[in-house]
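Supplementary Methods, section 5.1.

A reviewer requested that the exact input to the structure prediction be made available. We therefore reproduce it here, unchanged from the version used in the analyses.
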Amino acid sequence: MSTVDLAQGGHGGHGGGGHEAHAAASGWLPPVLAVALVAAGYLVLALRQHRDARGWSRWRTASFLAGAVLLALAVLPQASPYPPDDFRGHMLQHLLIGMVAPMGLALGAPVTLLLRAVPTRWGRVVGRVLRSGPAHVLAHPATILGLNLGGLVALYATPLHAVAAGDGLTHHLVHLHFLLSGYLFAWVIAGPDPAPRRPSVRTRLVLLGIAVAVHAVLSQLMYAGVLGIRVPVEQLRGAAELMYYGGDIAELLLAFALVSSWRTAQRTAASNTDTLASATNPDSSPSSPR
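The structure derived from this sequence is encoded token-by-token as follows.
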């Protein structure tokens, strides 16, 4: 077994006896059920909002459910296209848990949906949390980079990967860190949910550029074999290519979401300004005398 295969946590093996099957279920069934429950809760609230006068975007619902499905597939060993020991499978799992699935979840605007569903007093509580000091710290660019990219570097450039491969609790904590830090990154960069003191569009594009650069450098170091990861060369290089190209695709999609949301906000602001000008300036009306 590879010492860096984090996806091996609850796997039973190729032979598959009763003990192995029980171990696999006990290791992977709880997170899959948790994801299914969260997705079901979101869907129930979204369907209720569809019947409300304000409505709810089907694109947001589709985005959140797609993220949930990808997250469930990532933690389900049987869904991997690679053998249990293959380092490329671990890298694919990292991309899904840490980048692609969190982006879908964040673009689904779950906080906004929850705020519409809960009583006003609970909405005020959420608002106070978002305006609190810890929330401002979490949304700061330095925190985002430290959690998102720092965790990635720590996993592949230190003995952490070997520790996580041999310890189930550490293994799950690593995945939880990837999920939360990836969600935080997507939320601040392009998420439609409210965020405290969200950086400017230019700053967010710079953050995305730094993320692309770090992924590129780390994947090239991995491909060259200088990180000390002891796996077969073809697996190491395949995983490095997945990190390089998969990371680029995920970050380009996030950049597209950022630019799209920004342009929509600009058009909405311009429309509101024109409406206000027409309402306050009678001479601007086409039917007014000249």
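The longest helix spans residues 233-280. These observations are discussed further in the main text.
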